[in-house]
Design a protein that fits this description.
With about 230 residues, the chain is an alpha+beta fold. The protein is built from 7 helices and 11 strands. Helix 2 crosses helix 3 and helix 5 crosses helix 6. The chain is globular and about 55 Å long.
């Protein structure tokens, strides 16, 4: 296990990283397993070491709303830092997943011992908030096509290098997941994806979707849509 390249632990030397790793036991989950569910105690921060995790919320009608798709290097589950002590959503593995778990007491002790991590955490929270605002902007007052393009651009920005043209969505991310993320129905998303493939904005076939990041951004700009970074 390594903490290199993970923003939350940026600036720590090898000895400090080794000390932190001793406080983070590794947990493994099979595909479609729940790391936590709605109502569970919010007492740990998780770091994705390998695999893909889906964060979701189930509304009163029993409908699942996807809040986020997380991959290697992402952290989640830090609600214990607020006043709410139980999970309001679930974290489910979309593939075989390996995570590191850092319990609340250990995390708070680490923040006191390593102020750099506290600063990194504040920056991370600010970035997450900005991404949430950008996603809300992409879902408000836009056409179905623009909402899907905005969501794809958000995913590309998060998991793709800035200067690469093409980005492949993880194969575990389904069109149903994209529909949930954009507030659209599955049929609409499928039709838009087929249209975008014919236009060369998307590629791939079947469940594999490749995204031309620059083409997505250009299409949104041509529609007069401003997408926040």
């Amino acid at each position: 296990m390594s903490l290199r390249g993970i923003d939350l632990f940026e600036g720590l030397d090898d000895i400090q990283q080794s000390e932190l790793m001793s406080l983070m036991p590794v947990e493994r989950y099979r595909k479609n397993a729940y790391i936590f569910e709605t109502g569970d105690d919010a007492d740990s921060l998780y770091l994705v070491q390998d695999g893909v995790v889906k964060l979701a919320y189930i509304n009163l009608n029993g409908e699942e709303k996807v809040l986020g798709i997380l991959q290697k290097g992402d952290t989640f589950g830090d609600l214990f830092l607020g006043r709410f002590r139980s999970r309001i959503g679930s974290a489910q593995s979309l593939s075989a997943v390996t995570v590191c778990r850092l319990r609340e007491t250990d995390f708070l002790a680490i923040l006191h011992r390593f102020p750099r991590i506290a600063l990194n955490f504040i920056r991370r929270q600010a970035n997450e908030h900005r991404q949430t605002v950008a996603r809300m902007q992409a879902l408000m007052g836009m056409s179905a096509r623009e909402r899907l393009l905005g969501t794809l651009l958000t995913l590309a920005r998060r998991y793709c290098c800035e200067f690469e043209d093409w980005f492949t969505l993880h194969e575990t991310l389904t069109q149903e997941d994209l529909a949930n993320m954009t507030g659209l129905n599955r049929t609409t998303v499928s039709e838009i994806i087929n249209d975008l493939r014919r236009e060369g904005i998307l590629g791939g076939s079947g469940r594999i979707i490749t995204v031309n990041r620059k083409a997505v951004l250009s299409s949104l700009e041509e529609s007069g849509v401003e997408i926040l970074e």
